[in-house]
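So, who can interpret the following?
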Amino acid sequence: MGEEPRRANDVFVVLNPVAGTSNRDQVVAALEQHFAAAGQRHTIYETSGEPGEDIPALVRQAIAQGADMVVAAGGDGTVSLVASALAGSEVPLGILPIGTANVFAQVLGLPVDLNGAAELVAGEFVTRAVDGMRIGDHLGVLHISVGITSLMQRDTSREAKRRYGRLAYFYTAARWAFGFQPQRFNIVIDGQRHRLNASQVLIANGGEMGQAPFTWGPDIAPDDGVIDVCIINASTLRDYMLVGWSTLTGRHRQNRRLRYFKARRSISVNTKRALPVQLDGELIGKTPMHVQVVPAAFRCVVAPAIAPKSSTDGPLASVLSAFNVGEPVSPVAAAEAAPVAAILRTRLSQIEAPEQARQVVDELIRESEGVKVVDAQPNGSTDDPAAAVQHEAQRPGTDGVAGTILETAAQLSAAEGQTHEALAQAAQAATNPELANSADPALRGPLTLLRAEVLRRMQPYQAVDTRIFLAINGLPHPPLANQAMSALTNVMNAGTGWIVVLACAAVVDRRRGLRALRQVPPPLWLATMAVEFPIKYYFRRRRPFIDLVQAIAVGKKPGTYSFPSGHSAASFAGAWLLSRHYPRLAPLWYSVAGLVGFSRVYLGAHYPGDVLSGAVLGTLLAEGARRGVDALDG
């Protein structure tokens, strides 16, 4: 028998107010909202970072006073700090991942959005035993590293991490990766000594790197009673490229530059020259170090429907799981949204003639005219969107079809986080089943009639945009194609892929490459951030409600942040900036950018107009930012 779901009554929250790029006020508001809705007592302690602050002692005191859950609201370092106080206790650890990378939450398959995570710790949960790695008074839960990543952690400022997120690590990593020669390590694993050269020694309790689809190695699980030791020995561009390819494809064991060991009791690491030691994103000292393996050290809160990852899943499964279309949603959110898709299918299947489709569209236009997305209010509670959609579906005839679409759009406009994403995927499953290669013959005729009528009512430019979208989105969607396109967008998100390209270029041509590495990222990030925040925010607040209604009707993934495309802005901004440094390779840069833009339409995330506007804006903003940065440097 598995553990019965339960709910905490008295919660102690340790909040790191300067973690990652989080907003302290938003975090506090989300916690108070969810705990108040659940009728739970909670206490929030904000860390100060001052010398002498003893977080584990405060956690133990809270437990003694009756706390039956402790929540770590911060990055992996905060999680590690709180977990150290819970070792050996039955009081579970809840995680609110608001740090820079939040890798441990990814390892456990937890929600990484603020509202989804707050909903989990305030709702019903089960727990999962997690192993630990003890160094002195510190208990690591994720990774301990010595080498490139620990030097990267030491030399990346908190301000850079807050400003650029995980991208801040890339520049520092590039500097060290191409100037750091492998060191001589003396490693003792369960009493067996190993003398070897390495550029990185990683002691891992989870395989995720923090940037899908890259992983540290195969079969690394946080609850198998063993800790994995990964030895990386790379010194040339070819070495690093081959290591990167192995971590991308899951062929870690076939690469002679990677070696793996498993420890059940202890690990000791020493170096001739002292190197910094990084534990879960925090520096805790220098080599030599001694690590004790602590099986089932503490229990962590997970959703009742989430099964533990099995170490027998294999590397291929773990890599491909990162390529799912759309953002991952919890099984709970997906289950709540699934009835919406069923209701939509049922009502849409009742459209049998052009006259019926015309009546539906007339109703949609009449009810949506003049309404803004931000003002659209659902007719029912957003706590049960399926019930609200079902209520509207009970209207007679074509009114019920229009009511179902209108209420689905209203629920989407009001929902946030995983609830919004789950509803979006449910709507797309009903009206755009081709994306998942699951077209329903019974819906082919009704959807064709409804789409044709919606297109007929659109402005000419909008109709062309939508027709192109439907043509591209209607192409075959075999799983491998979906996975490849999703992988491309993951790698190129926020311009990450361009930074990797620049890092490699710095190895091939050090002088020219380092100059490009210094000059490209600032305008690239400025352009990307300008599109992602002020520009998208502006259009999100002012978008007509009919846009969202039409998106559902024609089968586009219905979102409120799609104009302009941030992925396209980052991709074309990078292509423009790289072309200034490597003009002969401009066709290659723009081919990659174009493929990213195509992937956004292919996956149903954007209309072609979103992609085109993102490409133009990204290019213009990147050039403007480049000139501004050059003027400041001059």
